[in-house]
Amino acid sequence: MLRWFRVVAVAEACSWAGLLVGMFFKYVTASGELGVKVFGPIHGAMFVLYALGVVLSAREAGWSRGAVVLGLACSVPPFTSLWFERRMAARAAVGQAT
Protein backbone atom coordinates (compact mmCIF):
# COMPACT_ATOMS: atom_id res chain seq x y z
CA MET A 1 0.00 0.00 0.00
CA LEU A 2 2.80 2.42 0.82
CA ARG A 3 4.30 1.88 -2.63
CA TRP A 4 0.95 2.71 -4.22
CA PHE A 5 0.73 5.77 -1.98
CA ARG A 6 4.15 6.92 -3.20
CA VAL A 7 3.04 6.64 -6.83
CA VAL A 8 -0.16 8.56 -6.12
CA ALA A 9 1.69 11.29 -4.19
CA VAL A 10 4.09 11.81 -7.10
CA ALA A 11 1.25 11.77 -9.63
CA GLU A 12 -0.68 14.32 -7.54
CA ALA A 13 2.34 16.64 -7.47
CA CYS A 14 2.89 16.26 -11.22
CA SER A 15 -0.75 17.02 -11.91
CA TRP A 16 -0.41 20.12 -9.70
CA ALA A 17 2.54 21.22 -11.83
CA GLY A 18 0.56 20.68 -15.02
CA LEU A 19 -2.39 22.60 -13.66
CA LEU A 20 -0.20 25.49 -12.52
CA VAL A 21 1.41 25.71 -15.97
CA GLY A 22 -2.03 25.59 -17.56
CA MET A 23 -3.25 28.37 -15.27
CA PHE A 24 -0.21 30.46 -16.16
CA PHE A 25 -0.98 30.19 -19.86
CA LYS A 26 -4.69 30.82 -19.30
CA TYR A 27 -4.46 33.82 -16.98
CA VAL A 28 -1.03 35.38 -17.53
CA THR A 29 -0.45 34.96 -21.24
CA ALA A 30 -4.15 34.66 -22.17
CA SER A 31 -3.19 32.11 -24.80
CA GLY A 32 -5.95 29.63 -24.12
CA GLU A 33 -7.28 27.31 -21.51
CA LEU A 34 -6.34 23.94 -22.95
CA GLY A 35 -3.90 23.24 -20.11
CA VAL A 36 -6.56 23.88 -17.49
CA LYS A 37 -9.11 21.77 -19.37
CA VAL A 38 -6.64 18.89 -19.55
CA PHE A 39 -4.93 19.08 -16.17
CA GLY A 40 -7.93 20.26 -14.13
CA PRO A 41 -9.76 16.92 -14.22
CA ILE A 42 -6.51 14.97 -13.97
CA HIS A 43 -5.52 16.88 -10.86
CA GLY A 44 -9.01 16.45 -9.42
CA ALA A 45 -8.74 12.69 -9.80
CA MET A 46 -5.22 12.62 -8.36
CA PHE A 47 -6.38 14.76 -5.42
CA VAL A 48 -9.12 12.25 -4.59
CA LEU A 49 -6.75 9.29 -5.02
CA TYR A 50 -4.17 10.97 -2.78
CA ALA A 51 -6.76 11.54 -0.03
CA LEU A 52 -7.89 7.93 -0.36
CA GLY A 53 -4.25 6.84 -0.27
CA VAL A 54 -3.68 8.74 2.97
CA VAL A 55 -6.65 7.04 4.63
CA LEU A 56 -5.83 3.54 3.37
CA SER A 57 -2.12 3.83 4.10
CA ALA A 58 -2.89 5.16 7.58
CA ARG A 59 -5.10 2.18 8.27
CA GLU A 60 -2.48 -0.29 7.04
CA ALA A 61 0.55 1.35 8.66
CA GLY A 62 -1.12 2.46 11.89
CA TRP A 63 -0.55 6.19 11.50
CA SER A 64 -1.80 8.49 14.22
CA ARG A 65 -4.79 10.77 13.70
CA GLY A 66 -2.42 13.70 13.61
CA ALA A 67 -0.48 12.10 10.77
CA VAL A 68 -3.71 11.52 8.85
CA VAL A 69 -4.80 15.14 9.34
CA LEU A 70 -1.34 16.33 8.26
CA GLY A 71 -1.43 14.08 5.21
CA LEU A 72 -4.84 15.36 4.18
CA ALA A 73 -3.74 18.96 4.77
CA CYS A 74 -0.72 18.32 2.55
CA SER A 75 -3.06 17.67 -0.36
CA VAL A 76 -3.84 21.39 -0.61
CA PRO A 77 -0.55 23.33 -0.97
CA PRO A 78 1.31 22.45 -4.17
CA PHE A 79 3.93 19.70 -3.88
CA THR A 80 3.57 19.08 -0.13
CA SER A 81 2.20 15.61 -0.89
CA LEU A 82 5.79 14.73 -1.86
CA TRP A 83 7.14 16.00 1.47
CA PHE A 84 4.51 14.06 3.42
CA GLU A 85 5.09 10.85 1.51
CA ARG A 86 8.85 11.04 2.09
CA ARG A 87 8.29 11.81 5.78
CA MET A 88 6.05 8.79 6.27
CA ALA A 89 8.36 6.53 4.23
CA ALA A 90 11.30 7.58 6.40
CA ARG A 91 9.34 6.91 9.57
CA ALA A 92 8.27 3.51 8.28
CA ALA A 93 11.89 2.71 7.50
CA VAL A 94 12.88 3.23 11.13
CA GLY A 95 9.78 1.50 12.46
CA GLN A 96 7.74 4.48 13.66
CA ALA A 97 4.04 4.41 12.91
CA THR A 98 3.23 8.04 13.72
From TrEMBL:
InterPro entries cross-referenced by the UniProt entry: DUF3817_TM
Membrane spanning stretches: 7-28, 34-56
GO cellular component terms listed in the entry, alphabetical order: plasma membrane
Subcellular location: Cell membrane
Pfam families named in the record: DUF3817
DUF3817 domain: residues covered: 2-88
Keywords, ordered alphabetically: Cell membrane, Membrane, Transmembrane, Transmembrane helix
Origin: domain of life: Bacteria
Membrane topology: Multi-pass membrane protein
NCBIfam families (alphabetical): integ_memb_HG (TIGR03954)
Name this protein carries in UniProt: DUF3817 domain-containing protein
